Amino acid sequence: MFELVKGRGRNVFASRDAVIYLFNGFRYSGINPPDKYRKQYFFYTILTFSLVIFSPVISNIGLVRDRNKLSVMEILNGLQASINIVALPIKRTVLTLAQKRLRSVEPILNKLDERYTRPEDKLKIRECAIMGNRLVLGFAVAFPMYYALSLVAALVDRHVPVSFWIPNVDWRRSLWEYWLQVGFDTSLGLFLIYQEVLSDSYPSVYIYIIRTQIQLLADRMERLGYDENKSSDDNYNELLECIVMHQEILRIAEIVGSIISVTVFTQLLFTATILGITMINIAIFADLATKIAAVIYLLCVLMQTSPTCYHASFLLADCEKLCQAIFKCNWFAQNKRFNNLLIYFLHRSQQLIPFFGMKLVPINLATNLSIAKFSFTLFTFMEKMGLGENLKD
Hints:
mainly alpha
């Protein structure tokens, strides 16, 4: 299972291999059923989709129902999870509808990979395939870690992890109802975390693939014109091919960007509130075990957007390096036809590949840091106003 993230089990890698873990996860979640088992997967897909759609209702009804019985710490624990769950149905719906568009990227990647035959280029493609799956695995390890610690903290203090709504069940009333609530919270919570892993990891994987293709193209442009065995026509045709490859990369970015725009914007919209609530819980109300779990949850919430913003920012830097690589090619030894085409490519390459959330919010590290800064400001304001201490008293 883990051979791919170690780079073992195969001799030839392709850029499309970076999404193997991702689409396997989609398949097990009911989003991407195999064609020959599509009918058998139908009811499973409906069940998983229904659970995701109604999860905000299940989480918030339980929290509202027990608000007079729960401590402030327990309310904040449930609230920080419930707010995150509200964003999940939107992300899951977009991903379900976008499966064909995501798959349409793979033939384009195959064409791009075929044009690289040097061992150094193949090594970079191999690293891309391995890193894409490692990103998914990293999300899959980090997110359940928080929930496991929350479960331990709940069992130690004899309260429930989330308090999802179960009709006619009060976990304080009897022992069997308590364990029923814990079992239901654990099962549904892990299911929702699995959905979060898929919806939050795919943007960073695809942006990393685009980064790799831009880097490969920049390396190729930097070498252009220095091979003495190639004629002027050969150099011209290679430059023309590089322009076509750049257009194909832009096409991939357009397809992926339209999907990322909705899901990442949705997550960014809720992140600041979640961070503020979690920090208040850590600083004022939480006990030691809950503090440890909440700190890990804080890191997980940041992780939901940070890898995507990180790779989106460095993609812009890679695009700038492509412009520099065009200047470094042996253009001064080429004919006028080559240089005219090179000027056109230089103009086109200055069009960077930015990603935006709903065409409003730039997806980059600056935005991610701004949201974290806003959450700290919100926490400081509430602390100065004494709101937390008043609630605690």
